[in-house]
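A note from the maintainers: we've had questions about how concatenated examples are separated. There is no special marker in the raw files; a new sequence line simply starts the next protein. For clarity in this README we add a label.
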Amino acid sequence: MALDGAFLRHIKKELEENLINSKVDKIYQPSRDELILSMRSFEGIKKLLISARANSPRINITSSTPENPRTPPMLCMLLRKRLSGARLRSIHQPGLERILILEFEGKNELGDTVIMKLAVEIMGQYSNIVFIDEKNNIIDSVKRVDASMSSQRLILPGLQYQMPPSQKKLSVLEYDADDIISAVQGINNNMLLSKALLNIIQGVSPIICRELEHLTGRGRDVFSKELDEELISRLRFFLKRTINIIRDCSGEPYIITDPSKKPIDFTFEDIQQYGSGRSFKECKSFCELLDRYYAKRDALETIRQKSNDLNKLLNNAASRLIKKIYIQKEELSTCADREYFRICGDIIQANLYRINKGDPELKAENFYDENMSEITVKLDPALSPAANSQRYYKSYQKAKTAEQVLTVQISQAENELDYVSSVLDSLSRAESIRELDEIRTELTEQGYLKSKGKKQKNEAALPPLEFRSQSGFKILVGRNNKQNDKLTLKQADKNDLWFHTKDIPGSHTIIITQGNTVDDDTILFAASLAAAHSKARESGKTPVDYTKIRYVSKPQGAKPGMVIYTNQKTLFVEPYKSDLI
């Protein structure tokens, strides 16, 4: 669901209750489209997140602490200079538009009291955060909009700030249920009631309109032209209920999840249109709802943006290796006939007396065949019989040498492809900038990235992921190949249990046994964790090998994360699914 004006009205109420009269203590800009204002009051410090990202625009109090760039962007430095120490005086929402105007009172460089505003525009890909002075002039914005991008509304420093064009819909703050019903009945085209309501009501998202149609039609589709007295009566009842919830800000924050617990929607009132196919989880506040709904998506989006170059590098390397292996295997297939060259050479050598210089071929008995069948051997008329024999022997030797070399090269290329695939898997599961940095370091050490001349101070390595089984056993999961090596070859005891997906890139998973016997439930749990932290995490039943650490070793010269093992057992398990909300 898009964050609509009705939901934003509930957010506005929460922000007013928690932040009015608090001061701006610190300002951060974790990414190009995000701001975080640390707001201080007598009750403590609360962090206000403002996002203009196209896929997750919002404003809410957050409990998360995103990683910040080492050098703050220019806009962040400007806001720190002008807005630090300012007090939040009011929050205004024009009607049910998806816009909040935050008004601050602060001091300018001369010590005079001035009014400054942040206009937070929640409009999908057109979302923006605009910094405005007391004369309504734009100081700067997260996204500047010039004449080449829009001919109707420019967002540039020095220009007057103008509200986005109104959609000319009916606001439920001013119009009642009967006004909306009359507008629906006045539509010329016969359309679904949900679509008609969406075109008429300001600030209401599709899920609310679909719910009104669902309740009006008792689960069936309702069209605007078929509204009879009974349907109108039902529509009026449910419209009034929704209007009162919006006007009074009396809704409850609900997250809607699919059967795998993945959040798919959110709303401010109970929803029945999904039936038993979806579950609902009520949150303590609307800000907490947005924080939980978007937290994982935002983290993954940040990682995706910062890992694009690594993804491109690794995918190009994988494509190059796949092509190389294919060509080499094609060449290897041509070496399969090398024995034919040797046989031809031997037959020519045995029949030298029968060959005259200039003969194009030799027909003779094949003494390598049990039936002594006749074989035709092609000859080069320009060569002597002995030279023709040597020509076949050379072809045989060349094919034999090529087979030996190609076999080694194909094995090396396949091992390198396995390594690249394992790094791609680690990259796809990275959840922080530090994890990305560790992967960059690994790729630099392996020669895939050029080393930067100036060495930066190395941060302490991240610890492995840690889990606990119900019986109390500690389970550790490596985040990347270097950590896998350290975990398996240095940290783990020889009697600990080691898990890895069978023939699938993934993390090393260790049960720390401390000499105790591990129960079956813990083994199954560790296997499901190994499957979840692998390339097969979105699959169903996944094969996972496990054995004792004493049976795991690293071949000399093998790349990070590459090991061999014996005495293993194999389990087929579902990848572990954590509660995503």
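[label: protein 2]
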Amino acid sequence: MIKYFIYCRKSSEDEERQILSIEAQLAELREFAKQNNLFVVKEFYESKTAKEPGREVFNFMVSEIEKGNAEGILAWNPDRLARNSIDGGRVIYLVDTQKIISLKFPTFWFEATPQGKFMLSVAFGQAKYYTDNLRENILRGIRQKIRRGELSAKAPLGYFNEPRLRTIEPDRKTFNKVKEILRAFATGEYTLTKIQSKMFSLGLVGKDGKLPHLSTIQKILTNPFYYGHFCYRGEIHQGSHKPMISKKLFDKIQEALILNGKPRKKRGPKNFQFLNFAICGKCGYSITAERHIKKSGLKFVYYRCTHKSKTQNCSQTRFLREEVLTEQVKENCQKVSLSDDWREKYLAKVSEWEKENSQSSNLFAQNLKTELSAIKEKLERLTDAYLVEALELAEYQERKNALMAEKKTKEEKLSDFERKGNHWLELVRNWIIEANQAKNFVLDNNFSEMKNFIKKIGSNRRILNQRLFVIYKKPWNYLYFLPAESRAEGAGEAKVLRNRLMWTRRESNSQLLVANEMYYRYTTGPKGAKRTLIWH
């Protein structure tokens, strides 16, 4: 008597649908075996696609047949056994070598004859053709969705898949919560674990109702979908969905992620005023604080290098007292401050610029549009180069992704400029006001605010030979190098002339006027050098 194995398979790996379909197959096959007096020794079933080889249960069943533990297979249809050429050929080869004597299907006739094997190979071929054709149809639909700017996948957190229109729309319950999380992380004040706790407090949890996994949070923070693009198979595409954040904010999030990945310095006691404020000017390692108590009972705080470098011996062994460092911080803050007198003069100059700005605004917008057109041309040429196989896929994707990111940045700049107009003048006005506020920090001896202010506007803060050095960002570096008398109250004629250089200094070729390295560009007009006042 021929011994049979029953084999059932369901393509979907969804548990509920899988169990229902396999139960139906088993019921039909058991009834078929009973009607035809077939001797079934074992039943096999699994939930795996057959379009590719590598099914564990199927391979085990075939190995049992090769060992001689059965000579026949009972399945619902040939496509349950194989939808790929390797598994299909394997079954036919076992029939040729008489390892398989009988194949039974309720929906298909088979005999171990040349005609029967030919029809079986045709059935396997049809199953493979159906899978291949279905795949092409699906990919064609996905490509069309991509052209429309639609992501053919599950919507990320904050969005949902709209079943009627088959689009991705903002989720009213989670959209603003995710937006708040992204904005919070961009500040740089959150680690991944802290943002994890914040998400949990807002009700953004994992599938199990617990804290979301850190890997999930990492994917959210690096997903371009949130600023209007999406990634499909390593390639960035323009999306048609509503963006959650701007590209500028997304870039800040990436910077915060990089800083977040660096080793965190341990926080010292709260009464160490300038801990984690500067680094050693010799070896680049952090500056630590120590408290010394003299025999008289007086307490002093000193700052020194941690000497943690394993490759070089730091020569800075002298301590810097906190009182001395405090005066140096005050001095640095004072050098980038503006008096009330000069604040009014600078604000008056900004008011004049507002009246002259219309022509330069049009020029700036036109320059951005020209740059966008150039990027679009580069994208077209890049695609043409890929189509003629002048570029490998990986190189094409890398270049395209960079151009898409640059294009999005330019589009946001143009959109912001068209919406805000003279917004750059507001930035200049805010800069003047901030510089004036720094003067108040100095007058009030508010060292905490002074420290935060210098950290905001300066970089590479280092202590070398008991001196604090700071590299100031533009335009603060101009104020730092401006003579002290030019920032004083009640400016005399000499001070006015010195400050007037800020607004009137011209280059010899009259082509470019640089005003104190602030954010203004000047071009030549029909009657000589003329300001166009463009914010960089």
